[in-house]
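tokens incoming
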């Protein structure tokens, strides 16, 4: 089996590649990534001499290269995206370019060569979940910010290509991921790194936003299962059912690191901030038998320890991207 992984130098894509090649050592992966923000080839340094892995630096919008590689693989899985909500609020354009036009570029190649497409989307396309509601795959899409709107647009494109052209595609909508190698600007790594450095840990608004979380290794295992067992044209929600407030997460991190809670600093809320995300993922359990294997607390502890033990990975990234500018000084207008 040959797979084109787009965006495989980022957090989830690199975890997918390492996990997939460990489980399927004779399969081949081509990783195409334009090495923009969030990428880090260090995530994949263990594969440098693996003959079944190759890296190509390019943009998913480069249709010629996408066509050329797609013609020679069985399946394409796309992680490539502009993925940070705060950045999408400051400047939506790159999100439209990559998340919408990039997905279109891949879909055209998939249509031409009749290959399988796994479209990695997000639960954020459903928007706020009121009360105790949990969205299932048939729930209405109601994105709140430019990031989730562009991901939602891509979801619609994918389903339209299935319905109109009969393209073989699967869409996944996963909750917030965490784990090793996550870029330092995201909530969990940023909170860990700032706590380690005894810097204030910012929380938007009152910190009561609720998210459900998944350890990245559970997510990539679900994706691998879907390549062989997912049904074309279907959407699968993926979560580990851990719903927790942002404040509780930061408190847990401070506790693991034995730091005082007064490191928490409440800052102005993110415009359009969704209060709660919640999805029901019974479908993927019933249809393909996937279920998460990690508990939130043990995975969080493992993640904190990983950042403690891998300062050489994040130190070079932190100077540029985590501490300057502070997220609350971004220009929202
Ligand atoms: N992180 C989460 O919690 C989460 C949750 C659900 C879904 N997702 C989705 O999973 C995917 C991966 O997320 P992530 O957290 O690993 O993101 P990431 O930002 O760490 O990685 C994205 C990768 O895509 C690459 N990329 C961006 N634009 C590109 C382009 N035009 N051409 C080629 N490569 C490009 C980047 O260089 C980077 O390596 C995204 O599609 C995201 O929407 C993420």
């Amino acid at each position: 089996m040959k797979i084109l992984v787009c965006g495989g130098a980022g957090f989830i894509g690199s975890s997918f590649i390492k996990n997939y090649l460990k489980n399927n050592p004779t399969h081949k992966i081509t990783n195409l990534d334009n090495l923009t923000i969030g990428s880090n080839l260090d995530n994949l340094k263990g594969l440098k001499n693996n003959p079944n892995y190759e890296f190509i630096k390019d943009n998913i919008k480069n249709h010629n290269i996408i066509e050329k590689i797609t013609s020679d693989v069985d399946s394409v899985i796309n992680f490539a995206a502009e993925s940070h909500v705060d950045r999408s609020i400051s400047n939506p354009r790159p999100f439209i370019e990559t998340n919408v036009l990039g997905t279109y570029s891949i879909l055209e190649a998939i249509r031409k060569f009749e290959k399988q497409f796994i479209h990695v989307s997000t639960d954020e396309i459903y928007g706020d979940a009121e009360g105790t509601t949990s969205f299932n795959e048939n729930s209405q899409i109601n994105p709140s910010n430019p990031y989730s709107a562009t991901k939602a647009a891509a979801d619609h494109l994918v389903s339209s290509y299935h319905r109109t052209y009969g393209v073989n595609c699967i869409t996944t909508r996963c909750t917030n991921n965490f784990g090793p190698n996550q870029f330092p600007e995201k909530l969990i790594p940023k909170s860990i790194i700032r706590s380690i450095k005894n810097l204030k840990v910012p929380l938007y608004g009152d910190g009561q936003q609720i998210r459900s979380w998944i350890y990245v290794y559970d997510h990539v295992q679900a994706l691998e299962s879907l390549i062989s067992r997912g049904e074309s044209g279907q959407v699968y929600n993926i979560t580990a059912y851990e719903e927790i407030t942002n404040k509780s997460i930061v408190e847990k991190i401070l506790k693991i690191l034995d730091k005082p809670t007064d490191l928490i600093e409440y800052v102005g809320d993110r415009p359009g901030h969704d209060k709660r995300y919640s999805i029901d993922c019974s479908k993927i359990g019933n249809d393909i038998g996937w279920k998460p294997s990690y508990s939130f607390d043990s995975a969080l502890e493992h993640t904190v320890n990983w950042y403690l033990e891998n300062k050489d990975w994040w130190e070079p990234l932190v100077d540029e991207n985590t501490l300057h500018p502070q997220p609350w000084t971004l220009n929202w207008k």
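note: The mean pLDDT is 93.
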